[in-house]
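Before a colleague's protein record goes any further, I have to sign it off. What it holds is a sequence and that sequence's fold in token form. My question to you is simply how this chain folds and whether the tokens agree. Thanks in advance; the entry in question is below:
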Amino acid sequence: MSYSLLSGQEPTITVSEDQIKEIGEEAVFNCTVENLSPEWSIVWMMFGKDNRGDSTPVVLNDRLVLTDNRMTLVSSNQSSTYTASIKIKDLQESDTGFYSCRALKKAHEKVSADIELQIRRPATIKSTAVFANVTEGSLVELKCEADGYPVPQITWKRHDDLLFPSGGAIYRGNVMRIDNVHRDDRGVYYCTATNGVGPVATYNITLVVSFAPNVMAVRPRVGQTIGEAIDLECQIEAHPAPNVTWFKDNVELKKEKSHSQKDVFVDSLKRYSVTQSDFGIYVCRAENSLGKSETKIELFRCVKNFHPDRFW
């Protein structure tokens, strides 16, 4: 309940306490105006919960001016005292706001007192983004905006209960901030909003981290006999997907293009029938818009009974 006096001390207003209600219940607002002289009029106004400038007239003196069959008015004006009770049945979320009982004078003098009505509302999440794309090393803020009454509590979790960069499996607050994002931070983040009214609200956002390639040889040295097939393999981690090329003696080798949609994959160079000229050092190189990386693999000749899969 609030009280304000803009000019003069003639009328005094007393109203009932602020109220918190459930949807479907009823609310009763009482207002008593004392020391009321004939030049003063009584007006009830309703203001939206988010915009005090958005007003709706409800009562003028002793009659309802708002058409709503859920609403009734009981009022009396005896001598210098005005009393009124407004009852609203079957409360809805749209009834949330401030109900202001006002004494007005032609000279724009005003005395008013407000009653706040809060309707318990289940938590709802207003966020709409489902992806966040950032570059490794930058700052990222994942936001989860929720509405409801009481004010919802917001928590975050990662997919598969992975730990947050700050440590711990749960983060509390509507903004989840990572100051120096790393590729290991990529993945799905789940936001949960709850206020004890209705079901829990959930929302998820996928963090996509772009980074330069990192290339490693699956086996740095591989042995094979002449006439046999062999696969040379390198493991690549990168986002966005890199262009992968293979070289031997500074000459680019022809091979089928790799089309992996994953950030981590294995690219291979196949030799179906090894010849003497195939032995030597091979380079596997990956490059995207953020940089490049390469590794070397040696293919060497071995005897007929040698098992290359056992060599490390």
